[in-house]
Fold this protein.
Amino acid sequence: MDPIDASPLVDGLLMIHKIISRGLLVSLQKCDEYIRKQGILPEEAAGFFTYVSTLKKVTHAHHLSEDEIAFPYFKDKIEAPYNRLNEDHITISHVLDKIDKCLLDFSSDGLGKLRKVLDEFDKLWVQHIKIEEENFTAQKVHQIAGIKEQVTIAKKIGSHSSKNAGPGPLAVPFLVYNLEGKDREAFMEHFPMIVKKVIVPIIWKRQWKKMSPFLL
Ligand SMILES: [Fe+2]
Ligand SMILES: [Fe+2]
């Protein structure tokens, strides 16, 4: 995107969609691998559990912040199928609730059930973000808000999400390390240096290290 067209608010939404989409893809691929191998690799079990349950929490937090901040903000200004989007969030939350139970059973049968639930989540997710990304474009958002206001709303969304995404030492690395290159840099742009250079990669590593096989 041309920098002149960049929208902090839309970029934030696109970035989180990218993170969740990758999380889903990796979870599905890993499920397939474990099913093929007739069981989960013992050294990956705890990490896979944490990765998939963090994916669930991050998705839930993203939808809550859309329901409570982004959509109410856009509602009078940008036309979009808000009812459909809110209903999707409810439908997806029911699917997400099934994940916890699946994560308690890593037998071939249990992994098959998890695969099915993730697949259901994936199908709903792909359609859902397509509607959001078609309706909330940078061009439309620029017409209703200046950059300063967009940054303010994006920050509100960020801090709201962080309250609902589970423990920071798991949620933040999940977000950061499901992105790479320029996306990761942009995502961490407003992080304080100490968080970027020390807290996330070093101090919190003991807690998120088990997710490493699934992260970038
Ligand atoms: Fe949504
Ligand atoms: Fe979204």
